[in-house]
Amino acid sequence: MITLDRLVNVVGGYGVAARLGEVSRSTELRSVVVPEAVTGDVLLALGASSLAEALRWAADAHATVVLARCDPPDADTALPDGIAVLLVDPALPWSELAAVVYGLVLEGRETESGRGPTDLFALADSLAAAIGGAVVIEDRHSQTLAYSRMQQDADDARVQTILRRQQPAELQAALAGRGVFAHLAESGEPLFLAPDPDLGMTGRMVVAARVGRELLGSVWVSCPAELPGAARAALTDGARVVALHLLRSRASADLERQVESDSVLRLLDGSAEAATVASRVGLPPGLLRVIAMRARLEPDRHTALLVAFEQATAGFGWSRPGRSALADNTLYTVLPGEQVDAARQWLAALRAALPERTTVLAGISGPAEAAELAAARREADECLALHETDAADAAPPAYDEAWDALVLRRLRAAADAGRGPSRGPVAELLRHDAVHGTPYVTTLRVWLAAQGDPARAGAELGVHENTVRYRLRKMAEVATVEVDDPGKRLAMMIELAALERE
Fold first, then answer.
1. Number of C-beta neighbours around residue 288 at 10 A
2. Which of 93, 202, 264, 334 could form a disulfide with 155 if both were Cys (CB 3.0 to 4.6 A apart)?
3. pTM for this structure?
4. What ranges in 27-108 are assigned the alpha helix state H?
5. 488 is in which domain, residue-wise?
6. pLDDT tens sequence across 286-345
7. Domain holding 343: CATH number?
8. Is the distance from CB of 399 to CB of 418 less than 8 angstroms?
9. 314 and 362 share a domain?
């Protein structure tokens, strides 16, 4: 059953304000009603002319929660004990809100998007008891969703799969080589895998959990020999139940993810009501950071990003620190906190939950208020682009640490777009070096970096300081190199920095 806490979390994204009074957020909700001669846990007060009327209807229906469209009560107005009030934004159609509330409450089971897949674990236990072997339930990406308490015929491969929350890479590769995943993608029939001591596997019976032609997951049973008729039938029937559970879980999770994504994208686009939107999705007041992330897993380049989005938005909304959204090929997450280490730790935890061999690239904005998140998004995008040019194992850059490298990238982008000067001292020295093989541009760059010290520049170049002075004099014969003018020195340093490759 869903709880009041989860209902408030979801409908809050639609502009519904909560006055819970003494009603516990852990209150379970099982039914939805409208003003009729019936009772239920959640009342949609359609047509109520006032909050008082809506509350009378709720009391008559023995409801725990009432959703009403009326003027909000004063802060000191006493509300009846035992009824939580959710005030509906006048701009929100009842038809849309009713669909959301009915979808949540009547789903009837809490999912991974709520309090965890407790009923999926219970289902694994029931299957194990019916079949007589240890059971593991996995999603379509071979990540562990649930497993039975029974350990009969359990082996090292099962233990490693449970501990890592996914199949070990070597086991996954071996199963792929045997055509196991191809079988699961195409067939609903159970498949027996013979024992393989090299993989630490005593034997497996596996069947796809699918709805129609869509593969949602798989059910694995530890067994040294192929299951006989009754056990095989129990496995096949159990896989259908697992598939229905996964379908319900995904539908519920998708609803909450959509609400969250819409709100996050509004923040990143520069919403005029940024503070209100941030509060609705549960982001605390204070400084925030935006993380822009891309994930790749060959050969399907899009799968890893979708899995990352599912992981980033998995878990009960109020218990997760960040709020996430997908935009094109990038996952954006708004994370509370000023410290960049917290953002990198969040990324590391997300990376650990992804399939092995996944490449993760990310950029982190500087700290920002809710109203500044549009600018923070641009900072995160630039840092992501910077990380894509770095080594894959380098730490994700943060804007407040890497702003200098980003400034140089902007200058290089301008130069590459043809917006760099085609005339002037640097351009003329470049042409001279290209024709005559002289090292004037390199010498000028090092001399400027040494702040005009010929001894330091000579040491850097591996020549005597008098050689540096000689080259500077020769440069003046080729181009108008006014090294005594501070403004022109700065301009030449900027132009040289733009020309220097990373």
1. 24
2. 202
3. 0.51
4. 51-60, 94-105
5. 425-499
6. 999 999 999 887 766 666 787 788 888 876 445 578 999 988 889 999 999 989 999 999
7. 3.30.70.270
8. no
9. yes
